[in-house]
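Need tokens for this chain, all 419 residues.
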Amino acid sequence: MAVTDRPRLSEQRQTIVLLSTVAFVVALNSIIIFPLGPFLADSLGFSPHQVGFLGSSYSIAAAVGGFVSAGFLDRFDRRTALLACALGFVAATALCPTATSFVGLVLMRALAGLFAGPLWGLLIAIASDNVPPERRGTAVGTLIGAYGLALIAGLPIGVMVAASDMGWQMNFVGIAVIGLVLAGIVSWQIGAQRRHLAELRRWNWSEQYAAMIELVTARASVLAFMLIASASFAALLISPNLAIFAVHNAGLSPARLADVYLLGGILSVLVMPLTGRLVDSFGATAVSIAVAVVTTGLLGVVFIDRGVIDLPAIPLFALVIAFQLVRSTVNQAWVTRVPAVAERAAFQSLIAAITNLAQAAGAASAPFLLGIAPDGQLVGMDAVALLALAMTWAAPPLLLMLDRALANRQQALPPGSLM
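Here are the structure tokens for all 419 residues:
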């Protein structure tokens, strides 16, 4: 690929497809731990309710990795940086089956998360480098759609493998092997990614520190961080509690939960690219309003009005899952417009860090609003849903302010400097 010019449309599509394969592995590794909870608890001898620590250790480490790497990622060929992060991610994942204790597995998951944060940031940065702003929504929607595909493959296949003679360990071995192969293919196929280096300033610690402070505190950056944090916080208020609500409040049998996640994954795979195209065509603010309206109806029917008792439960819960990702797609697609070319990897690593911290905060906040009734039903999910809706409706005004901030900044910069 040319260093200064974007590739042709066919090459752009190939690049996004290849990056999405890596995004799938990252997504699969992040969610596979939850359906494996009972198997891990039996094998390593810890309480099933401690599985949440495995998820939080991964998310917090990913945030740390994003913050730390933001200071230097943009100084390298993005392909080289992607390969380095992918190899670290694969190695840490491959070590998970060697864990003989709960603490050991927590440490291995944290190590994998440390590489996952900057790895995700690099995927978005490379996509932004190769796709013009008018098509970035579609590109980002495709990448985030990998999470839907991971839901489809992660839950059913992961549980089947763990329940077989291969054991839970084989899930991590398989993810590591697939990740290694895909990283090699992607690194070979997409070519060097040095376009941003032409705008890079010579390394100077004081100047680098000042530039990072300027990036983090800029009005457009702060608004972008708020957008990403609100969507991520809202998603993790709902998602961890959906299964127990579906079973104990909506009367869904535990065996049907796999159907919920399978359908949710299928809907996500179909809807994410469409969401991106809508953002490209109509702008993020209009789409975010539509998403907020639909989400209000969904959460209202399922968790507040409890109409799910009288309606088909599986499609409704599947739509709730899909719209958590839809909301994130709208915001993530639009904030790719914030950084300059030479700052993209740093900015997207910071976005990944904010995402993981907000997710951890959302998952930790919901239990303070929830309780268990004597009959086993989850109490307080209506309050959780209302808080999630408040975060959802924060997006349209934040997007309007972000558009205004970007327009004001564009007037003071040379044409094309933010592309």
